[in-house]
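Researcher: I need the complex structure. Ligand is 4-nitrophenyl phosphate. Inputs:
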Amino acid sequence: MVCLGNICRSPLAEGILKSKLATEGFHIESAGTSNYHEGELPDQRSIDVAAKHGLDITDQKSRPFSQDDFDKYDLIFVMDTSNYQDILKMARDENDEGKVELILNKIYPGENRDVPDPYHDSINGFENVYQMLDESCTVIAKELEN
Ligand code: 4NP
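Model: Output:
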C-alpha cells in the first residue's frame, strides 16, 4: 500500500486489508513515495479513524518505498495518480510495472480515481478515505483468498 507520506492513507489501507484477510500467508505493508515522515507513527487522525472502526494501526512506522519492494511484493496498490507515476519511475521492467495498480480501480474499474489526500483536511476527510479503502480492500481480500 503506497501513498505520499505513508502516514495518512496507506497506513489505513494496510490496517484495513490485514483485518479482512482470514487466512495466514499474506504479507501486507505500506510505504511512502517520499521520506518526509520516515520513522513516524501514522497521523493521529488516521489512528483515531482506525480506532473508531476497531483497528489499531499504532504498530506502523512510515518508511519510503524502495526498489526492493518490487521483489518482495506481488501487488503494489497506490492511492493516487501522482503516486502511480512516482512508483512507475522506479520500476525496472514490465514485470515491476505490472504490479502497480490504483487501489480505487478495484471498485471503479478503469476509472483511475484518486483516494484524496486528507492531510490538510478535517477528520471527516479521513473518514471518507477510510470508507473508500474499506470497500476496495473488501474486493482485494476476496480476490486474494479465492
Ligand atoms: P499521505 O498524506 O500521503 O496519505 O500519508 C500526506 C502526508 C504528508 C504529506 C502529504 C500527504 N506531506 O506533504 O507532508
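Model: Summary of the prediction. The chain has a mean pLDDT of 98.
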